[in-house]
Write a structure and sequence with these properties.
The protein is of the alpha/beta class and 1001 residues long. A hairpin with a 2-residue loop joins strand 14 and strand 15. The longest helix has 26 residues, at 594-619. The protein binds flavin-adenine dinucleotide (FAD).
Length: 1001
Amino acid sequence: MATTSLDDTSAIDEATRQRGRQLWNRLQRRRPTLLERRWWDDQLLEWAMADESVKVQMFRFVDVLPMLRTTESVIQHLREYFEEVRRHLPWAARLALSAEPGAMIGRAIAVSARNNATRIARRFIAGTDLAEVARGLDHLRRDGQAFTLDVLGEAVISDCEADAYQARYLSILNGLNEHVATWPHDAVIDQSDQGILPRLNISLKLSALDARFSPVDPEGTFERVAARLRPILRIAQQVHAFVNIDMEQFAYKPLVLEIFQRLLMEREFRSMSDVGIVIQAYLKDSEQDLRSLLAWAENRKTPISVRLVKGAYWDYEVVAAVSHGWPIPVYREKWRTDENFERLTTLLMRSARWLRPAIASHNLRSIAHALVAAESAGLDQRSFELQMLYGMGGDQAALLTEQGYRVRIYTPFGELIPGMAYLVRRLLENTSNDSFLRHSYERDVSIDELMMNPTEQGKNAVAPPPIVVPEFQNEPLTDFSIAENRDRMQEAIDEAREDFGREYSLIIGGRAIDTTRKIKSVNPSNPSEIVGVVSCGTPDHATDAIDAARYALSEWTRTSPEHRAEYLELVAGELKHRRFRMAALIALETGKPWVDADADVAEAIDFCLYYAAEMRRLGTGREVDLPGEENHYSYRPRGVAVVIAPWNFPLAILTGMTSAALVTGNTVVMKPAEQSSVIAAHLMEIFRDVGIPDGVVNFLPGIGEEVGPELVGSPLVDLIAFTGSQEVGLGINAAAADTDPRQHSVKHVVAEMGGKNAIIVDDDADLDEAVAGVLQSAFGYAGQKCSACSRAIVLDGVYDAFLERLIEAAKSLRIGPADEPGTDLGPVIDEEAKNRIQRFIELASEVNQIALASEPPSSSKKGYLIGPHIVTQVRPEDRLATEEIFGPVLSVFRARNLDEAFSLANNSRYALTGGMYSRSPENLRRARRELIAGNIYLNRGITGALVNRQPFGGFRMSGIGTKAGGPDYLLQFMIPINVTENTMRRGFVPPVEEAGQEAGE
Ligand SMILES: Cc1cc2nc3c(=O)[nH]c(=O)nc-3n(C[C@H](O)[C@H](O)[C@H](O)COP(=O)(O)OP(=O)(O)OC[C@H]3O[C@@H](n4cnc5c(N)ncnc54)[C@H](O)[C@@H]3O)c2cc1C
């Protein structure tokens, strides 16, 4: 074939179609026949593809299968998964569903389900150990194909798992080195245009080399990953092996690229050319990445390989971006990904001197285009390679091998259980609506359609449907994988430090008042640092503040709901503007690690905007008019509200309670927790800056025990919104109930009072997820969230495995100052809290069994740090099981069965949050019904409720009132009034504006 210029896109396209058709025609002769085993596999996949609901259930079943140890549980899960889609199943499958677990047929089905899943898994996974893999590689070699080995594994969540992952790669390099050396030379796969190629080739994921692969902390992550990767690279150099770094989720990409480039610039690796990285064409910014890799490789003066793929995490990227409110990083139309793939292929072929192309695809159009592009770029067949996945598109691989191309097979190996996640990904890929392989099986898709230029396809393509999201959009969390955001946060921390020691006044009726007595608010990560010095209100100031609020009430009440809502929007705007500054203060004053601190600000913004929108909704009232009668239902403020806030969500909860009171027309006395008075002072500054009239919000920092009784007891107070401990909350409730003859209303109390929250881990749970979820829920913000998990209740079947992994994962958490980005576990709030938590730990060491007692590193001894503690052998009646600890102490219970698990979980006076990890639909339904908690979370952590999406609040002893961030919350701050007017005068009735339904005869 005459070569075509790479710039002549239409000629390239024509040549691509031609090449594609030729390949296709040859492939048709290779389609499997009925006599081959893989025909059955293909049929099975085709059957699954036919109905989306069956497909989902089938893949879920495959996913859970390795965890099912008994025939009964296999049958139970089969039933639960397929019952809903029963009518879509073939008759034989319906019959099977009716089988009794104990009956012969039941046992036979269980065995057959396992065998089938194992067989399909073996199609995609080369083996479970090195010996088996070596045999598989011999096969590939005989077929003339090269390989790259990938170790499948559980998600890495502890240092020892990361060590084990590294060790497996080292053992591949050492163990297979001699084996591959025995193979006779094969000029096609052992030689490139630049020399002899390594036979041994591995692909690895950087996130698996670190328990805490964290885009928030690139420096720390680099150190840890590099420490594990260097030995791999060293051995690879010694044994002449190739190391490819796979690409994972978008959030990891900047860090993966950075680690790869930094490490390869180190002297000992700078001349290493047997390394490669992946570029994902579905990412909108992939061309930019490819170009900067090119510039980097030129500068390094040693080439690398680039594997061009489309990307394996498409669904995840869309869901994750939508969930975070971040821009979607991937193309949403398949033809755009394909088009970009071709564009990047061209660029790669042009840049082959520095970036050796490895085109990884099973799409015949993409492959044909790559072959034509390589020829047009004048490349020798040996100067690039084609890559495919083990078990996918095997016929294509064989055909291209026959045609003299170097074809490398990405060959995963490892245990079946961890391999299931991989298997399900491959199954999804094979059966996705947009998959080329799927289309190639569909009989009604012609070769012309299959070979169509993606840009052409785009002309006829229907735009993807808009993604449906709730009307209220949560404020996106800061994406710390973006370097600029990390820099801004660090700068904000530095600036906040410069401001340390600043003095803050009380603000009463718009007047700043300085007291002689002060609250010195310190940094719990380093108490010698004074974050700010805040005037300390007395009971007299409390009286003044209440008077000021009372005085401002009449004017503020008359301000329209619309106008009040606008004030909240201005506050939200200011919080956005000061976003990093506020987050920095939260990290410094209350010891919240970066991500939690940032989430606190985002939640404060959400509260303002959500309550503003809610007030607009409620502010219109409700009309029920009849001829001659007008009825108007509307709300009035209660009066003066006292807001008593905690330090653990120092901005979010204070803003939430205050903004709810304000927007509903109440005036407020804002009493922050002593430990977070500086953050509150900054919030007060914002209220003033946006022009909220004097006296509408009064700022009264002070000692709770001193000003509290006046605030709660004053006859001029109508409402108390409190979040904090149960003891204080109940005290406030009792005091508020004690009416004074001067009072005009019975005080209304809204109180959030903590929890003793449990997560149940079922014996079919995905332990990767369960361990990570429990870890985060128990030790996030050092266990100081009222939603935190303090009890994990684990079914007997997985108890040991769960506990072992949890302990190792908890050991791997980095304990340190909250303002350092690499910190997972910051300090507890103050000395008193530290002592109290330590008393619980002492008690646990006497009464229970301490399974893990992590100590903070000696370098961080100055802060109020307590390492994560895991306690076992806890009885339901023990203090550890019943009292809120508010620290990083988790009790783990063993439950014999689900009845016991639910009974343990519900054995609490609290009912705030609760959760369950399970893959049994029936057990999840049971959790919905039976868990006694205000917020129930299934298959995810139990902290991090989002305004509107997860309105938050508990019952029993956890709270009085309805949920914050939910549709009922504002109602608590108002009194409903109904006005009825008789509009008939002397028999004359004005017309009713909007009639309801027509009256009957
Ligand atoms: C050897 C090898 C190594 C690989 N290594 C990696 C790796 O390190 N990291 C990685 O992420 N992936 C990797 N993959 C997987 C790869 O990214 C693709 O998922 C897979 O190859 C399918 O692409 P295709 O060209 O074969 O098939 P096609 O059917 O042509 O393409 C399917 C792909 O198109 C994209 N897509 C699907 N729907 C849409 C849509 N609506 N809008 C936009 N795009 C869409 C997705 O990326 C999907 O996987 C590798 C694949 C191979 C063969």
